[in-house]
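Honest question from a wet-lab person: if I give you the sequences of every part of a complex, can you actually get the arrangement of the whole thing, not just the pieces? Trying it with mine:
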Amino acid sequence: NAGVTQTPKFRVLKTGQSMTLLCAQDMNHEYMYWYRQDPGMGLRLIHYSVGEGTTAKGEVPDGYNVSRLKKQNFLLGLESAAPSQTSVYFCASSPGQASTDTQYFGPGTRLTVL
Amino acid sequence: AQSVTQLGSHVSVSEGALVLLRCNYSSSVPPYLFWYVQYPNQGLQLLLKYTSAATLVKGINGFEAEFKKSETSFHLTKPSAHMSDAAEYFCALEIQGAQKLVFGQGTRLTINP
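Yes, you can. This is the full assembly:
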């Protein structure tokens, strides 16, 4: 049982390049989330999904797209990377059965945009 | 809108001393409240959560937090700090039923030998 895994762990992009971050969970969770973590700002929600085939915007969705084609995977895409997207990205998942459910976090992806 | 404020971006205590990390929240409806810990180069791990049952919540690693509605606070404490407690701590709020977390800015805890 690996929990929540993220690929890749590190990435350096040039401005304007695109990439996709992959999040996978093996806990059969319904809900999945993408956050970004910036110094002094805590974690901010980018997008989330309440089930396979559904996505919704969070607090800071601009410049990102997501897809949830399979229940266990949640992809975060950057179509045209900007230096402002330099951050650490965390994926999380939760069962989604009750509002007291705990969110389980992946180890993070450190992205640098030059 | 709901928000979370953590007082002090950096707290330093001596090993064996009391740990007190402050969290205040703003919410128009009763929230659920969480404390998460992040060790260096790792993801976040749940320490404890308040879900409107007992106001004093006990978590892992000897931490506890008390929900005080009158003060809109959810401060995290541990009676005796250990070197392994050095990490960043995040307070978070969830509006009941929303299943989305709002995080505070984080507090980095340093333990001095």
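Two things worth pointing out. Chain B has no helices and eleven strands. Chain B has a mean pLDDT of 92.
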